[in-house]
Amino acid sequence: MEVKVEGGIVYSSKISVPKGHPKNQMTDEEFDTKFRSCAFFGLQDASRKAVDRLIDGLNHLEQVDDIKQVTKLFKLKG
Fold first, then answer.
1. What are phi and psi of 64, to 5 degrees?
2. How many CA atoms lie within 13 A of 54 on its CB side?
3. pTM, two decimal places
4. How far apart, in whole angstroms, are the C-alpha atoms of residue 4 and residue 6?
5. CA-CA distance, 41 to 25, in Å (whole number)?
6. Which has the higher per-residue pLDDT, 77 or 59?
7. Which of 39, 41, 64 is nearest to 52 (CA)?
8. Each residue of 34-74: pLDDT tens digit?
9. Radius of gyration of the chain (CA)
């Protein structure tokens, strides 16, 4: 990426392995932060509590007996 600022100065940076790539994985905290940001951007009326429940449910899929338990979590307005 290059950014040219007033006065003609150019700043540039190159990332060989982007964040999220298997060789540069996100931490759980980074992933949760990104997920929350996307959820609130896409669904401005999503409640914080509902997004927390969804993240928790998705982080514990191995404990789910019925997929309906997971699909109910996608109702983010409550």
1. -85, 130
2. 19
3. 0.63
4. 7
5. 23
6. 59
7. 39
8. 999 988 888 777 888 888 888 898 889 999 899 888 888 88
9. 18
